């Protein structure tokens, strides 16, 4: 099997598959960890029972999601070596230390305090427990810092030199870490994680409000989530626009692919809303376009000239159709999320927040939208920087391990089978937990009962109900 | 002049050893799962390690990430050479890792996740042991790349080291249970510890006998004069620790069997270090050839010297929070 296949294509498929599965979990746990910290802080400050109920409710879900993030993440840290050994050899001196710092400053922090956060409330008391929750939340953010810095360096490499062995080495660590695209990517991704979580929390809240408008826990989580969506979605759209302008400056070919601009336009480039990019013919078929709008967005002038892929050698073209469509999916969802936020604001203003079934249905429908947008965004940026792993300097084809196609093909199949079996089971368990309403008497850690029921196992009634 | 490369070799060796110490008993519990078919026993076994397993596995990530950072060439050569065992290990870790949460989320499929926990632990351990054997027996390198086939790792010797590690981790797991449980469960862990200790001594013996027959010559390193002055204390210490371990098991001591087993691991590990030094890929790449440039080493050394003591500190605190015996129905879950 797999004789005659291209080993590099298989390795790329494997990386894309394992990465796509992985990113879903951090995108959720970054936001959820912060949300849990906020809930616990509110509980400590107000002593209102609803907050600790919600904390325990989401903590169970966090535990399952975090576990899946950890195991799928270990896979990623070894895949650089197993499947991309030339890349590892050449970029190890630059990327390696950043990943080592991620482990030292973030992973250990999360893992070290996770046990106490999940199981330790009675053993350490509320204050120290809050510290543990805070450490886990901070850990997830530090992790985002380092891994996005490493990814950004691959997209917009600066501050490096090349040594006699052909390895990239750091000439200036600050320039490596704070490379040109890093601040934009970090802001864009962290906001995306917060939005993703708020949509999930809002969707779950709305689901339970559709059944019982008076459920206190559902009301509180829905309201908090909708505030988040209302406030952050517009900021995210602005941040995305800035990120795009930064990309135009440093990776113009990626923007050309996102826009479907095969041809250069001397006086004002059209914004192609939809169409079918044909890589071979180098044109977008069935294009629906708005004249000159792309120049206005990217250059802030209707008649500004805009270069197309015809200025880039063909062997350096990214796969336009994927980049083009992934980008549209992300942007479309972004505006839908903003729409949800604005709609909820209107209902809030009219005092219909907890009564509008239309709003609740919309929110339930948008529950998974953040995940899809995050995946589409990453697909846009990762396919758009092809055919390079280190942009303009190291080609993807020169980055792979010297492995035979059957080896990579077999492992790819193994990953597909295992991931679908394991992670679908995990998602089902999470959905089951979400299907339960936040228990009004959700066993809080302040009650002095055996740890068995106070920890992350739901109260006995909830467990029975889940089956 | 301090040699940063030697410092880094010790740091990576330390990270891998801490991983073996912390995840060894953890994986061992999975390996022993089939011997404890009762649900209450399994709940207790899971609960002895549930709050800390995630931190334990983070050391594996540090070992991998740290190696890519400090010895990128070795990472780039070893990982493709060990492709199949590495992928098997990662998939094994997926199964056992998710089982920690999943088995509490379902009654119908609980048994399935118990099998995933046991099977995943066994596969991950076997793969680690095989990888170790495959490194020791030598790896075909040309230029800056692995140049062998994708089944080169599979030899009788690597299978032997794989089995040896399974026995070793199982012994760590059994002595951990002696320390963390009570009653009938603890009694059975005692009996298992005896059997596993005998098996482990056989395994150490078998690996020691097989090693001189490898293509890579380690005998010279151990027995040539004057090396023997430095190497002789290792087997002597192994004998001494074994004697202490036998006595501790005889006394039914709580803590000593676990920590003495760790000492046995430490000595075997030191033995490995003696065999391999100064190579990181035996007989083809030395630590200096594989080392990252000095500015990468220094950049990370700053972080390591500040952060690793801190990490060890809060990890110890987490273990302290969950100290003591775990009883049925009083777990953390």
From TrEMBL, chain A:
GO biological process, one term: aerobic electron transport chain
Pfam families hit by this protein: Cyt_bd_oxida_I
Any one GO molecular-function label of the UniProt entry: heme binding
Entry superkingdom: Bacteria
GO cellular component annotations of the record: cytochrome complex; plasma membrane
Keyword Iron attached: yes
Bilayer-crossing regions: 20-45, 57-78, 98-121, 128-148, 186-210, 222-239, 322-346, 358-379, 412-431
Main location: membrane
Places the protein is found: Cell inner membrane; Cell membrane
Recorded topology in the membrane: Multi-pass membrane protein
Keywords attached to this entry: Cell membrane, Electron transport, Heme, Iron, Membrane, Metal-binding, Transmembrane, Transmembrane helix, Transport
Family the UniProt entry places it in: Belongs to the cytochrome ubiquinol oxidase subunit 1 family.
This protein's name: Cytochrome ubiquinol oxidase subunit I
Organism: Bradyrhizobium uaiense
From TrEMBL, chain B:
Membrane-spanning ranges: 6-36, 83-103, 115-139, 159-179, 191-216, 222-246, 258-278, 298-322
GO terms assigned for molecular function: electron transfer activity; oxidoreductase activity, acting on diphenols and related substances as donors, oxygen as acceptor
Alphabetic keyword roster: Cell membrane, Membrane, Transmembrane, Transmembrane helix
Main location: membrane
A GO cellular-component term linked to this record: cytochrome complex
Entries under Pfam families matching the protein: Cyt_bd_oxida_II (PF02322)
Membrane topology term: Multi-pass membrane protein
Localisation: Cell membrane
GO terms classed as biological process: aerobic electron transport chain
Key word Transferase present: no
Family: Belongs to the cytochrome ubiquinol oxidase subunit 2 family.
Protein name according to UniProt: Cytochrome d ubiquinol oxidase subunit II
Species classification: Bacteria, Pseudomonadati, Pseudomonadota, Alphaproteobacteria, Hyphomicrobiales
Gene name, Swiss-Prot/TrEMBL: cydB
